[in-house]
Amino acid sequence: MAEPSRAQQLYGDLAPKMVDIVDELNFGDIWQRPGLTPRERSLVTVSALISMYRASSLESQFKLAMQNGLTPEDLGEVVTQLALYTGLPCATMAIATLKSVLSTLSD
Question: How many CB atoms are closer than 10 A to CB 32?
Answer without folding.
Answer: 10
